[in-house]
Amino acid sequence: MKESIIAVQKAVNELMFDEIKGLVGACLDEGIPPLEIIEEGISKGLELVGEQFEAGTYFLADLVMAGEVVKEAMPILEEKLDASTAGHKGKIILATVEGDIHEIGKNIVGMLLNVNGYEVIDLGVDVSAKKIISTVKETKARFVGLSALLSTMVGGIKEVVDSVIEAGLKDHVKIVIGGACTSEQLRKEMGADGYGETAVQAVKIFDNLRMPEKSQ
Asked: CB neighbours (10 Å) of residue 43?
């Protein structure tokens, strides 16, 4: 792995707010693609932050600071991504489940989806199933992306899935989950339609889920 990418990882992991823009800029100057910087640099750095949080060496304040570091870097990368087709693939509602305030990964997913042709409706963090269902009905969105960092909050995913079924929307709405505590096994247990291990995978997952629409 290139040293410049490793430097971005380190900057995110060690909460180096003042250095991140310069390090990302150096990667771009080297000709490294923005998506590679996001996946191998920023996302991997966030994984390390998450590991330290789970281990008890980082705390909530550190998670918040890591989010600020990423926010500082993302505008530079967004400028290099083509957003000219935003919205034509359909609407996706993004939310961090109720009780969880983690939003770093969700925000990266939202940016990637936006520049790859989706209209993103970001409801933020600590979002109730009721709010998600009402937004689905209001916007006619066919996709919902749920983020959960903490294993104690996975019940929020099941609540959303159950609410979609109770509202009679299961045949029309696809639910994708992601976040540090999620997995393919959890997807099956919760009854969701897709799972993404990394933020960069999100575009392909939603693209695959919308394929049947092409024949309608």
From this structure: 20
Domains of the chain: 3-79 (1.10.1240.10), 91-215 (3.40.50.280)
CA distance 110 to 8: 21
**Interstrand relation of 119-122 and 174-178 (parallel, antiparallel or unpaired):** unpaired
Helices (H) and strands (E) in the chain, counts: 10, 5
Longest dimension (CA), the chain: 52
- Residue 164 and residue 158: Cα distance in Å, rounded? 10
Residue in the structure block whose two tokens are 């989010």: 67
**Any residues with CB less than 8 A from the CB of 205 and at least 6 apart, and which?**
176, 194, 195, 196
Condensed to tens digits (0 to 9), the pLDDT of residues 111-157 reads 888 877 899 999 999 999 999 999 999 999 999 999 998 888 899 99
- The torsion angles phi and psi of 209, rounded to 5 degrees, stand at -70, -25
